[in-house]
Design goal:
Strand content: 15-25%
Number of domains: 1
Number of strands: 16
Largest sheet: 8 strands, parallel, barrel
Number of helices: 9
Order of helices and strands: EEHEEEHEHEEEHEHEHEHEEEHEH
CATH class: Alpha Beta
CATH topology: TIM Barrel
Low-confidence stretches: none
CATH architecture: Alpha-Beta Barrel
Shape: globular
Helix content: 25-40%
CATH superfamily: Aldolase class I
Mean pLDDT: 96
Radius of gyration: 17 Å
Strand order of the largest sheet: 2-3-6-7-10-11-12-13
Oligomer: single chain
Structural class: alpha/beta
Distance between the termini: 18 Å
């Protein structure tokens, strides 16, 4: 996609709260409204976490189904569901929505990661199980890498025939306890990619905006949203997720790049649609 960039919005996440960001979309209807607004602002992919009635992160298939159906009534945005879930979820709980709902895309964490004072376990056997189920259902994986070793771990899945081209990576940088965002670190991640892979850069917290510029400078794609960062500028909360997408689209345009549409991304990533 020459002169195009793909913008993903991670609108909710598993950790952000209404107390921290009052505009956080929690209910299926709120998520659907956010998806429609972000699509209009330039996002092609919605990275989806869901919450229960108390606002807690959940991997409930019923809750995912409700949210997906609500989004589909509003917009054609690509839905990428999380299999990272939240701290404490079992691998079986994290994978179940993919098995039962068979989305176009889903995240696949490529290694165990420190998550602040806690951690999320992803061993190679877990990764193989997830990748095999994705392949069986033609679900395109976003190979999320929090550390440089995760990129190399993904090569095992490729060598074993568990992943199909085009390979799509998500570099999640600046998570407390994992790799911080720097130009040098981003460059190292890119150098470790298999030939022909594409990548999205996700800068957590204060690294969100620098990571967007880094992505554009290196041929990558962008992710924004309240999962990654709730602020528009230092000390100023974003009004909504769409405001963050609008800025990403604006700086992309200023760099000579146009946001790709969902259908353009479906064709490029060979999604089942």
């Amino acid at each position: 996609m020459n002169n195009k960039i793909v913008i993903t919005c991670a609108c909710t996440g598993a950790e952000t709260s209404k107390e921290l960001q009052p505009a956080l979309p929690i209910t299926p209807d709120e998520v659907a409204k956010t998806a429609e607004e972000c699509r209009a602002a330039g996002a092609a992919i919605l990275h989806l976490h869901v919450r229960d009635e108390q606002g807690r992160a959940t991997q409930s298939v019923a809750r995912f189904k409700e949210a997906i159906e609500a989004v589909r009534r509003k917009t054609d945005i690509i839905i990428e569901i999380t299999t990272g879930g939240a701290v404490g979820d079992t691998a079986e709980e994290r994978l179940r929505p993919v098995i039962e709902l068979e989305p176009e895309m889903a995240s696949l964490d490529c290694g165990t990661v420190n998550f602040g004072d806690e951690y999320i376990v992803n061993t190679l056997p877990v990764m193989r199980t997830f990748a095999a189920e994705f392949k069986k259902r033609r679900v395109r994986a976003t190979l999320e890498c929090f550390d440089l070793g995760h990129v190399y771990a993904s090569h095992y899945l490729i060598k074993e025939g568990l992943l199909e081209e085009p390979y799509h990576y998500g570099f999640v940088l600046n998570v407390p306890g994992a790799v911080p965002y720097t130009v040098e670190n981003l460059s190292a991640f890119i150098k470790a990619l298999p030939a022909g892979a594409n990548f999205t850069v996700m800068g957590i917290g204060r690294s969100s905006l620098p990571a967007q510029y880094g992505a554009m400078a290196t041929g990558g794609w962008i992710r924004v949203g309240f999962e990654d960062n709730v602020y528009f500028s230092k000390g100023v909360l974003a009004k909504n997720n769409a405001e963050l997408v609008e800025r990403a689209a604006r700086i992309a345009h200023e760099s000579g790049l146009a946001p790709a549409t969902p259908d353009e991304v479906r064709q490029y990533l060979k999604l089942k649609g």
